[in-house]
């Protein structure tokens, strides 16, 4: 089987160990995970997002580029609909939140969009929870100060 087929089989089978092994060995496997994020199956997208997050441990530069592309796709100017972007970013925040710290201001700005607010709010809360020290504390304070109409803060 090809790398694409192997990755697709691992994702559809929910085999995170196989996804992690494929991503560790083949940096280009990450792009196949990104491609699976456009599938209609929620389970495939969820496992694909988790796979991208796992790949960040092995290939942080590759995943940083994916983060940049997701941020662009969520911008109104891109004229692109990125329904899976918040899910991918949340998965990355759970695995390697430090990759998202440089783009927190973009995430805050984009979270004002009604279609993105819940997913990006969850992502920002996860970054705040997972980042130790002053970064996490300051983000938590900021999110609590700027809680939306639901009043949901970080904690």
Q: Distance between termini?
A: 46 Å
Give the CATH topology: Leucine-rich Repeat Variant
Q: What's the CATH C level?
A: Mainly Alpha
Write the element-wise H/E pattern from the N-terminal end onward: HHHHHHHHH
Q: What characterizes the major β-sheet?
A: none
Helical fraction = 55-70%
Low-confidence regions: 149-155
CATH architecture: Alpha Horseshoe
Structural class: mainly alpha
The number of helical runs is 9
What's the short story on this structure?
By secondary structure, the protein is an all-alpha fold. The chain has helices at 3-12, 16-25, 29-36, 42-58, 60-74, 85-95, 104-110, 117-130, 133-145. Helix 2 (16-25) crosses helix 4 and helix 4 packs across helix 6.
């Amino acid at each position: 089987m090809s790398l694409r087929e192997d990755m697709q089989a691992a994702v559809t089978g929910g085999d995170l160990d196989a996804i992690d092994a494929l991503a560790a060995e083949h940096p280009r496997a990450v792009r196949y995970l990104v491609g699976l994020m456009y599938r209609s199956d929620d389970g495939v997208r969820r496992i694909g997002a988790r796979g991208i997050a796992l790949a960040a441990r092995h290939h942080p530069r590759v995943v940083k580029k994916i983060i940049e592309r997701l941020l662009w796709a969520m911008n109104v100017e891109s004229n692109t609909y990125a329904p899976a972007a918040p899910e991918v970013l949340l998965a990355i925040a759970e695995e390697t939140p430090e990759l998202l710290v440089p783009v927190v201001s973009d995430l805050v700005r984009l979270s004002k969009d009604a279609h993105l607010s819940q997913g990006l709010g969850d992502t920002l809360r996860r970054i705040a929870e997972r980042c130790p020290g002053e970064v996490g504390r300051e983000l938590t304070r900021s999110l609590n100060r700027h809680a939306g109409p639901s009043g949901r803060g970080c904690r």
